[in-house]
């Protein structure tokens, strides 16, 4: 029987049918691991480019290595170790050094270095298969057990949540094969020097928060059941609640990297950097010949104190001082820039702002920087240029001055990456970046550019994305995969002319790919987005018709059927809000129920379906007064919230939905506990939706309503004043032509009348 075989096309994986038997295929071909996620990756191409400089982090590395190589002889010995620290404290460097030491000492080690916005490396979907593939290479005797597991259950190769859970994947592909080998009691040469080590670096950079918790829970259960197994797991991350809540337990040894930070390490680090950098810079050499040592010992001490223990800040400050730039006819020398570095605001925001200012005056600066900040996966300089329709040299010209904070490869075909993901956070937070802010409206430009690039290649080959064996250009593959991300990111930011352009391009793409659901759904979603912004029923009718067509092309058990059901449900609900037609609401409820049935427990998107169904049942309750609908909606929202612990990116939706439902419940039952819980939930939702979040106005309105109810029950004037303030802000966020502008006017007017009568 034929098997599905993955093949790679310039950074993307696709599948085609093959008659190669499982026995003939290598385990690498079967598992399809991520090749640039381990400690052996090319760090220049696949960040983080981290390694401990000689003489730094000695105590921290020594402690971890001593633990990693020690045999496990007692039931109470912790198998897991978590090292946590702030941004730039050197966590990845320590992970790399621990892996390298294990390799030098001939101890088996496998690793996964998570990195945000780096495609599959920011997801958990291929973790188990990647670790299993590395394990088979490090301990060849485990390969037969891994093959046997896959032959028994081929669903282990599917993304976790579709057919099997992440815990099952790790159990069947990693833990059990290793356990089976150990159980044979035969001497395994690779384990002679110490236990098998798994290193997971940057766990906080993984987008799949729920699955991270499942991963940790599964590890704890496995080690509890197998207390003497010679296996250790070393994890590094920032302190985030979804990780801390699972790892801060007696079965895990904790290391706070702050305890290991020392000025001596930073001083050693800077000494090595300056010795090397000054030896390569003829301007500095000439200065030293005339004036003596540079930087002076006094300046070095000032730098160390200013840097405050952050290796990433130290590295970036050094690059800022030493890197030549092209921003002026007479660029400042390193000696000129040293005093400027000492005046920088401590932390990374000041450094980011000053570094970016070097290229701010150059052509296409904002386009290029906003693109890098908002891309769903990194692209090379050539792909960025092709996407934006500019020359490669123009991209390089902007980036060459920014190498203190952006990794610019030496060739045009290697992805441009950020030195640290905190730069993306800076650029996408307006309160921090100011006029450097990557505005959501740039998503609209990226959508149009993606459609143009996709069409360019489709005109040459209409079957580019549907036939196996095609060599898909990087920018075309990016456009095909991430169109929806930019459409969703640009919601509310389209100009009428941009909608017209998007519709024209989508229609042409669809004409070149008849009978394919993906281009149908893209066109449908553009119509729906347009209808939402201008209130056009005609556009909404077209969107619904197209979504029905796409759904028919994905009959059960098509793996993407639930997505088509979601899309149809969203469009039907939009039309219900526009026209008030109950038939649309009833059909939306039916469609969302079907989608939820396709997303059982452990499915990655179950919380989305719970929220969707809870929302439409709450809407029907508001129309019909059905208490049964309200009770079910509250139950669904509670389950969704439980699946979205902080800092889950969609937690605010569940908080908002449950809060609104509890306010309605209070209206019926007069139970103050419901109202107090609603107020607490909605306050958290608002904190998670800072301006200019497009959903903020809904949480403001719900909390304002809840506070008005509490004022009416308790007579607290402070609640009434806060409600007025919240509803004023909601109105400001719903300026015409926002479809809820009139509702906000009514809400604020009613509360002002309450205050007048109070």
Automatic annotation (TrEMBL):
Write down the Gene3D superfamilies for this protein, in alphabetical order.
Answer: P-loop containing nucleotide triphosphate hydrolases (3.40.50.300), Tetratricopeptide repeat domain (1.25.40.10)
* The keyword Translocase belongs to this UniProt entry's keyword annotation: no
A Pfam family that this protein carries is TPR_10
Q: Which UniProt keywords apply?
A: Repeat
Kindly give the InterPro entries that the UniProt entry links to this protein. NPHP3-like_N (IPR056884), P-loop_NTPase (IPR027417), TPR-like_helical_dom_sf (IPR011990), TPR_rpt (IPR019734)
Please list the residue ranges annotated as the Nephrocystin 3-like N-terminal domain.
73-238
Protein name as catalogued: Nephrocystin 3-like N-terminal domain-containing protein
Q: Which species expresses this protein natively?
A: Candolleomyces eurysporus
């Amino acid at each position: 029987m034929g098997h599905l075989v993955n093949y790679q096309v310039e950074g993307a994986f696709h599948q085609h049918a093959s008659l190669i038997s499982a026995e003939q295929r290598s385990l690498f071909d079967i598992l399809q691991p991520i090749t640039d996620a381990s400690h052996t990756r090319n760090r220049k191409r696949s960040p983080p480019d981290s390694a401990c400089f000689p003489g730094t982090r000695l105590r921290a590395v020594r402690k971890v290595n001593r633990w990693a190589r020690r045999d496990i002889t007692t039931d109470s010995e912790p198998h897991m170790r978590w090292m946590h620290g702030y941004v730039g404290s050197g966590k990845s460097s320590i992970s790399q050094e621990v892996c390298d030491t294990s390799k030098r000492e001939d101890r088996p080690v496998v690793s996964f270095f998570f990195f945000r916005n780096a495609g599959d490396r920011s997801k958990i979907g291929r973790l188990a298969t990647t670790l299993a593939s590395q394990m088979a290479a490090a301990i060849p005797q485990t390969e037969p057990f891994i093959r046997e597991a896959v032959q028994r259950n081929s669903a282990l190769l599917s993304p976790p949540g579709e057919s099997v859970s992440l815990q099952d994947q790790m159990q069947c592909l990693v833990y059990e094969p290793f356990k089976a080998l150990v159980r044979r009691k035969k001497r395994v040469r690779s384990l002679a020097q110490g236990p098998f080590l798994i290193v997971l670096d940057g766990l906080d950079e993984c987008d799949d928060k729920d699955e991270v918790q499942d991963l940790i829970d599964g590890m704890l259960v496995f080690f509890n059941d197998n207390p003497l197994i010679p296996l250790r797991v070393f994890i590094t991350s920032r302190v985030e609640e979804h990780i801390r809540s699972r790892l801060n337990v007696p079965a895990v040894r904790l290391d706070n990297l702050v305890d290991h930070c020392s000025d001596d390490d930073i001083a050693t680090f800077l000494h090595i950097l300056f010795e090397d950098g000054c030896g390569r810079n003829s301007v500095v050499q000439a200065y030293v010949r005339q004036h003596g040592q540079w930087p002076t010992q006094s300046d070095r001490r000032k730098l160390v104190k200013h840097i405050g223990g952050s290796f990433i800040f130290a590295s970036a400050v050094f690059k800022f001082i030493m890197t030549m730039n092209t921003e002026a006819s007479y660029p400042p020398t390193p000696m000129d820039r040293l005093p400027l570095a000492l005046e920088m605001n401590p932390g990374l925001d000041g450094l980011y702002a000053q570094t970016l200012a070097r290229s701010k005056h150059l052509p296409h600066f904002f386009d290029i920087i906003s693109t890098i900040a908002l891309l769903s996966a990194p692209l090379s300089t050539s792909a960025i240029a092709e996407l934006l329709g500019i020359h490669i040299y123009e991209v390089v010209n902007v980036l060459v001055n920014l190498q203190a904070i952006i990794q610019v490869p030496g060739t045009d075909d290697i992805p441009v990456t950020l030195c640290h993901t905190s730069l993306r956070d800076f650029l996408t937070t307006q309160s921090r970046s100011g006029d450097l802010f990557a505005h959501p409206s740039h998503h609209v430009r990226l959508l149009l550019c993606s459609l143009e690039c996709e069409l360019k290649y489709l005109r040459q080959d209409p079957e580019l994305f549907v036939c196996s064996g095609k060599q898909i250009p990087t920018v075309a593959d990016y456009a095909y995969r991430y169109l929806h991300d930019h459409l969703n990111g640009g919601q509310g930011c389209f100009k009428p002319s941009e909608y017209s352009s998007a519709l024209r391009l989508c229609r042409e793409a669809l004409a070149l790919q008849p009978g394919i659901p993906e281009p149908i759904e893209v066109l449908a979603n553009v119509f729906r987005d347009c209808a939402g912004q201008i209130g056009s029923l005609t556009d909404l009718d077209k969107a619904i018709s197209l979504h029905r067509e796409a759904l028919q092309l994905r009959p059960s058990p098509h793996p993407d059927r639930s997505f088509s059901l979601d899309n149809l449900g969203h469009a039907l609900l939009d039309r219900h809000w526009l026209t008030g037609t109950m038939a649309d609401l009833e059909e939306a409820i039916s469609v969302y129920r079907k989608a939820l049935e396709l997303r059982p427990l452990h499915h990655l998107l179950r919380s989305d379906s719970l929220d969707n169904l809870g929302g439409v049942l709450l809407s029907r309750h508001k129309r019909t007064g059905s208490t049964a609908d309200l009770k079910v909606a509250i139950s669904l929202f509670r389950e969704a919230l439980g699946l979205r612990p902080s800092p889950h990116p969609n937690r605010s939706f569940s908080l908002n939905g449950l809060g609104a439902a509890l306010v309605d419940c209070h209206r019926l039952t007069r139970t103050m506990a419901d109202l107090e819980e609603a107020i607490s939930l909605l306050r958290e939702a608002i904190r998670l939706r800072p301006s200019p979040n497009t959903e903020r106005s809904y949480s403001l309105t719900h909390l304002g309503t809840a506070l008005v109810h509490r004022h009416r029950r308790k007579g607290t004037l402070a609640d009434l004043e806060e409600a007025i303030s919240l509803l004023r802000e909601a109105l400001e966020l719903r300026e015409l032509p926002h479809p809820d502008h009139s509702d906000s006017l009514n809400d604020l007017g009613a509360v002002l009348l309450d205050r007048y009568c109070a």
